[in-house]
Every structure is written in structure tokens, then in C-alpha cells.
Amino acid sequence: MVTHVRAEAQGDERGALLSFIAEQRDGIRRSVLGLTAEQANSRPSASDLSLAGLVKHVAAVEQGWIARGKQEPPAVKWDESNWHECFALVGEESVASQLAYWEEVAAETDAFIRSVPSLDDTFPLPNDPWFPPDERVSMRWLCLALIRELARHAGHADIIRESLDGASAWDLVAREEATPA
Questions:
Q1: CA torsion through residues 63, 65, 67, 72, sign
Q2: What are the CA-CA distances from residue 21 to residues 16, 36, 66, 141 (Å)?
Q3: For 60-69, what is each residue's pLDDT tens digit?
Q4: How sure is the predictor about 7, in pLDDT bands with cuts at 50, 70 and 90?
Q5: Taking all residues of the chain, what is their mean pLDDT, rounded to a whole number?
Q6: Measured distance CA(68)–CA(74) in Å, rounded
Q7: CB distance 173 to 71 below 8 Å
Q8: What is the pLDDT confidence band of residue 37, given thresholds at 50, 70 and 90?
Q9: CA distance 25 to 84
Q10: What is the rounded distance in angstroms from the CA atom of residue 173 to the CA atom of residue 181?
Q11: What tens digit of pLDDT does each residue of 106-136 get?
């Protein structure tokens, strides 16, 4: 835990879940703080992951889960033809454009989760081979899945950033707090 997630208002489960989602988003967002495009796109570890690619991936994944929760198709359908673009910037994409897109997605996530009648409301999982057939999950599950996805990639981002220039998550929090908005 690099930052503290404040306790929710009594009975505000949605607020608590959204606060933990925001905390993990912030960790990934901070990982690109002060980097050049070349640094953000570099792959300094044994993995093919870059910080720029992680930002793109988590924005797309979050958008996809919220779309599924709304029972709409995701903005991007990943398959064998475009999977290689899931973790890499292509064309005119940049870290700044992906961060701006993710900010829009985050606002949509927060508004949607606040608007659903109940966190117990369900939606069907996609007909993908890695999901059980005819499975339904709750909005609470959706939030927990986002926390898990974001936390996993925030850890990747910590390792990649530290490999690039030695900056730890703690260093980046301090740097962000010292930077005027």
C-alpha cells in the first residue's frame, strides 16, 4: 500500500469499492509521471510490457467491463487479429491520449456504479472460453474484478518504472505531491 484509501462513509459500499479502484488507477497513472515517450514505451524487463502499453490496456479493460455491465459491447473487441495491439501504442496513440481516454472511462465507471440500483444486480459474462457458460456476475463482482486487474498491473508498473530510473511508487507519490496542480 503506497497511499491510504480513506474509510468509506458508513454504509457506502460503492464509495469504498470506487475508492480502491481509484487508488489502483492512480498507481498506474503515476508510473508514467515525468517520463519521455521513449521511456514510457520501453521494455526494460524480461517481459514485453511497457508503461505506455499498460496504461492503454487498463483503460481498455476497464471500459470493456463497464460496457459488459451495461450489457453493451466493449469499444474494442480483442481477438487474434489485434491482440498484439492490446499492450502497445499504435498509430497516433500516445501516453497523454491514453491517459485522457482513461480519465473519461474512469468517470463513466464511477457514474455507472453509482447509478445501478443495487450492487447485487447481475449481468451475463461473455461467451468466451475462459468463462463458465451462462454465468452471471454482480456489479460488486465487477468492481472487485477491476480492483484485481488494476492492482495486478499497478505491480507490473512499479517494477517497470523502478527498472527504468529507480523511482519507486513511494518516490512517485512524493514527486506528485510536490508538483503543483
A1: positive
A2: 9, 26, 13, 13
A3: 999 999 999 9
A4: low
A5: 92
A6: 7
A7: no
A8: very high
A9: 23
A10: 14
A11: 999 999 999 999 999 999 998 888 899 999 9
Identify the residue whose cell numbers are 480483442. 78
Beta bridge partners, 124, equal 136
20-45 b/e (C-beta count within 10 Å ≥ 16 → b): bbbbbbbbbbbbbeebeeebbbbbbe
pLDDT at position 6 over 70: no
- Beta-carbon-side half-sphere exposure of residue 158 (alpha carbons within 13 Å): 17
Q: What is the 3-state secondary structure (H, E, C) of 48-106?
A: CCCHHHHHHHHHHHHHHHHHHHCCCCCCCCCCCCCHHHCCCCCCCCCHHHHHHHHHHHH
Q: What is the pLDDT of residue 74?
A: 95
Q: 168 is written with which cell numbers?
A: 519507486
* H helix and E strand count, the chain: 6, 2
Strand partners, 137: 123
Q: Measure CA of the first residue to CA of the last residue in the chain; give whole Å.
A: 23
Alpha-carbon distance values, 30 to 12, 25, 133, 134, 167 (Å): 27, 9, 38, 38, 11
Task: State the amino acid at position 116 in one-letter form.
Answer: V
**Are the C-beta atoms of 154 and 165 separated by less than 8 Å?**
no
CA distance 59 to 94: 13
